[in-house]
Amino acid sequence: MAEKICVSVRVRPQVSQDSSSGTFWRVEDNRISLHKLHGTPIPAISYAFDYVFDETCSNAKVYELLTKDVIHAAVDGFNGTAFAYGQTSSGKTFTMNGSANDPGIIHRAVNDIFQKIQMISDREFLIRVSYMEIYNEEINDLFAVENQKLQIHESLERGIFVAGLREEIVNNAEQVMKLLESGEVNRHFGETNMNARSSRSHTIFRMVIESKGICMHSSGDYSSSDAIRVSVLNLVDLAGSERIAKTGAGGVRLKEGKYINKSLMVLGNVINKLSNGAKQRAHIPYRDSKLTRILQNALGGNAKTSIICTLAPEEVHVEETKGTLLFASRAKRITNCAQVNEILTDAALLKRQQLEIEELRMKLQGSRSEVLEQEILKLRNDMLKYELEREKLEMELEEERRSHKEREQRIRDQQRKIENLSSLVSDGDRSSSQDSMKESPTDECNDRGDSFKTPCFKGAGNVFVAMRSTNSELPDFSPLPDSFSNVADEVTWFKMNKGYIADLDSVQTTPARKVQSFPPQDITPDCSNDNYKEELQNLKRQLELVIKERNEFERKHEEEVQLNDRLMGEISELKQELDVSNNSLEASKERYGSLERELQLLKEERDSLLKSVAESSQKLTVLADQKENILKDLNWEVERRKDLEAEIKQFNVAFASRQRSLATIHGEFKSKMEKLRAENLVPLHKSLQY
Ligand code: ADP
Ligand code: MG
């Protein structure tokens, strides 16, 4: 869907109180206008943008209103770019990097991205970052000082990319911050005047966010769908724009044309062309500078883009400020067409790297998982490094092959030339011997005429043959005409660099052979003997020249052959390097394999442990059941005993009372017997006898 680039303006606080009685900038809502000191607005210098932030505005607010949407969209698979444009000391770096109290856009974006992906449970993410600087039209890697003068390439799979640029896979915001700090250190390395450099160089912090959906099956397993989203987020701190602004709206002439920042000028051109509407879109000069080439998608392409133009409010800067506002208002007219980038090919790193790592990582829990996670991250980074290294080597090899082919072609050409010359020389020999024998000079003249028809002899005299080398590059800086306006248009630029002005550095000059042709008037059918001799002399001289030239060519050929051999040697060295790199990749893969095996063993161990634990717990359950039953029995027995005891007690009591009553009865019986005995002693005896 086509949408306009989001453009805002930010005015930094005044550094010094201006005592001049001139003008000042007034910010009202989303409008900024130039006013005379007593308050009347100056007509025509009033601009409206998506947002205009005054000097009280914090980075937090700028991020919230201007950049947050772009960052969130990047997590969802849209390319995104945010850049700061403005003159030196207007607050670009403050906006992008911020301060300790008020972190800038980069810091906030990184935190925000990691927070956001943490909340997305149905996708897994792989994030890698890179950090580069464009200085004097050279791309340097800020993560690896040895990576200098990198080249931009384009491929179907990866789009436009910087070959050999180091990328680091990252897991959390702290890692990114550490990397950025190390990048800053690299930037300062060996640089005596850092401020001068930073005002002339652009830095691009780039995050590549890959993600794919994961779904949980009812079995509890994870699986992932095939489409992978890949989005690129560029956060750019541009060089100071004052130099081109000076040439511009105010009409102030450019003084320091020699050191003009080509990237910024081309950026101006690109914005200019894009703002002119769809008609001219076919001729956007993205390729004229490294910056615009890298940001091609962000400018009128497949990306969501927000631009923040920073202004210095002091009156001395009014012309630069006007230039910046003009740039901003042109940018406002650009439409982009952003879409989610989903790919199914192997181009996505996420896909290329073994998916199992991620799955294992998710499945793994417990104390060892952290260590393994670190190990896996390291492994992934190693793999990425090897891949990038291999890619770079392949490209170098390709380059070597091409130049080798070109050299071979040149050698073949020269050989052909030498052959031509040899045949020429032998022709010359033949004709001179014929000359001495022939009677008819007319025939001789005709023959000679034919012999010298080869094109290389045509440009005789003091002419030099100039040849533009095929791989000549545009010069870094070009002299500018006096009338150069704010942002030079492409035609002027083209004229300056590709058209009229010869690229003297890359021009090779070879002196043309000094060959004297025979003056035709000398060759007449009735030429004298003297003439004839003179001609013979001429011919001999010419022959000598040609032989000399042939020797020269042979020598050159010898040199070329030597060069060729050296190149072949270099190529085989490169191949060896490639082999070494492949070997280490292999070793890393092996390490990964052994790690995986270790993991497998651990898993098996854990499983068997779990199994025995399960068995034990089963036994424990049975035992517990038994114990419970026994306890129950015991309780019952105890109850029964208690009952029995109670019964025994009762019985005892009853027994005692019976005993007592028996004793009483016995006593009574005894006394009765006594009594009876006393009363009837004899009868008793008698009765007893009975
Ligand atoms: P640039 O990168 O455009 O050259 P800087 O970001 O380095 O400019 O800003 C120049 C100075 O102004 C720095 O000291 C910075 O801290 C200060 N500054 C810039 N913008 C602001 C702002 N919005 N609030 C407070 N200080 C700022
Ligand atoms: Mg700066």
TrEMBL record:
Residues 4-334 form the Kinesin motor domain. It comes from the Eukaryota. The keyword DNA-binding does not apply. Pfam families: Kinesin (PF00225). Residues 529-619 form a coiled coil. Residues 396-419, 427-451 have a biased composition (Basic and acidic residues). ATP binds at residues 86-93. Residues 396-452 are annotated as: Disordered. Keywords: ATP-binding, Coiled coil, Microtubule, Motor protein, Nucleotide-binding. The keyword Nucleotide-binding applies. Belongs to the TRAFAC class myosin-kinesin ATPase superfamily. Kinesin family. This is Kinesin-like protein. It comes from Hibiscus sabdariffa.
